[in-house]
Amino acid sequence: MAKTQIAQVPRATPRATETPALAQADIDRRVFELYDEYCHGRIDRRTFMTRSAAAVVGGLAMAEALLPHYARAQTISFTDPRIKASYVAYDSPGGNSGTMRGYLVQPTGQGPFPAVLVIHENRGLNPYVEDVARRLAADGFLALAPDGLAPLGGYPGNDDDGRDLQARLDQAKLRMDMLNGARFVKAHPRSTGRLGITGFCWGGGTTNWLAATLGSDLQAGVPYYGAAAATESVPAIRAAMLIHYAESDERINAMWPSFEAAMKAAGTRHEMHVYPGTQHGFHNNSTPRFNEVAAKLSWERTVSFFRRHLA
User: Fold this and answer.
1) How many CB atoms lie within 10 A of CB 76?
2) Measured distance between the N- and C-terminal CA atoms of the chain, rounded to whole angstroms
3) Which CATH number belongs to the domain containing residue 97 in this structure?
4) Residue where a domain terminates, one of 43, 67, 91
5) Model confidence over 120-174: pLDDT tens digits?
6) Where residue 74 falls among pLDDT bands split at 50, 70, 90?
7) Which residue range(s) make up the domain with 268?
8) Within-domain flag for 19
9) What is the value of pTM for the model shown?
10) Nearest CA to 253 among 233, 228, 229?
11) What is the DSSP letter of 79?
12) What pLDDT is attached to residue 99?
């Protein structure tokens, strides 16, 4: 894969009242690999901690540092004057309960605005994903972030329980809940009818699935480190695709050659960027997997891509 070259930036100096946090460079690769197993539900939290402690001196502290701290994730305030945010309910035929709940954020003003669906990871609508929706609204988009856990009471306030809840859902119906979210925001009175989708991890794979499922109803898809669409479904994609990968993400990156070949054969408009020195989840600014330079560059590309294709 061709690599996007990005410069390194100096580590921020912590405030005097803060305990210095471990940065990505301080964490052993073996602990990152265990965290990948943990955050994808292949081992539980206790096993993650135990194996990390056994893998390397200081491994327990490294493991604890990788757990999300959502206070860090807020970049756009709930009260930012550029946006209006609310939780909305809407019908979701074929989904896990027939109804859904999502976080709808619009720019101030009457609009209409191009619409973007924001799809969470494998743990429900956590504060990081809500902040992503606010970021999009601050840039002029009508953003909807569905909570796939709504049929089970919604995101429970922590990722461990959220991950367990999401695994309990019927996965085909969960994808239908995301599809219905796309249809809802596309048809919203404040929407221009032009639709984009972005998502992270599980949400990235679901972005690819929705691109094939929605066909010409979707104008732009931007998956972050998501599983590729099924090869046989790729010819149905009509949207322009902007695909972001981390450099150290073996399982996801191994899907790229066949995905790329299928898109080329189908004539799908696409571009891909892989970001050196990054881990799966590099856009999520609540853990040390966050890479400030890569996250900023990828987000600038994402917003520009949506502006170009949803205008």
Assistant:
1) 20
2) 30
3) 3.40.50.1820
4) 67
5) 999 999 999 999 999 999 999 999 999 999 999 999 988 889 999 999 999 999 9
6) confident
7) 76-310
8) no
9) 0.85
10) 228
11) T
12) 97
**DSSP per-residue letters across 238-297:** -SEEEEEEEEE-HHHHTTHHHHHHHHHHHT--EEEEEEEEEETTTT-TTSTT--HHHHHH
Tell me, yes or no, whether 185 and 40 share the same domain.
no
Cα angle, residue 68 at apex, residues 5 and 38 outer, rounded to 5°: 85
Whether 286 contacts 69, CB under 8 Å:
yes
Q: Are 179 and 213 in contact (CB under 8 A)?
A: yes
Non-local (6+) Cβ contacts of 39 within 8 A are 121, 122, 159, 163, 201, 281
pLDDT at residue 67 in the model:
67
Residues 47, 101 within the same domain: no
Give the strand pairing for 113-119 and 83-92: unpaired
Does 31 share its domain with 82? no
Burial class of residue 307 in the structure, from the number of CB atoms within 10 Å of its CB (0-12 exposed, 13-18 middle, 19+ buried) = middle
Instruction: Mean pLDDT check: name the lowest of 59-73, 100-114, 247-261.
Output: 59-73
* Inter-CA distances, 6 with 84, 269, 274, Å: 34, 24, 10
Asked whether residue 18 is assigned to any structural domain, the reply reads: no
Q: Is 145 helix (H, G, I), strand (E, B) or coil?
A: strand
Residues 50 and 150 occupy one common structural domain: no
> What is the spatial distance between Cα 296 and Cα 300, in angstroms, rounded to a whole number?
6
92 and 62 share one domain: no
DSSP-derived letter for residue 311 is -
What is the DSSP track for 33-76? HHHHHHHTTSS-HHHHHHHHHHHSTTHHHHHHHHS--GGGT--S
Tally of structural domains, the chain: 2
pLDDT tens by residue, 23-68: 777 877 787 777 767 766 677 777 877 887 787 777 777 766 666 6
Mean pLDDT of all residues in the chain? Answer: 89
Q: Please give the order of strands across the beta sheet that includes 113-119.
A: 83-92, 98-107, 142-146, 113-119, 191-200, 220-224, 240-248, 270-279
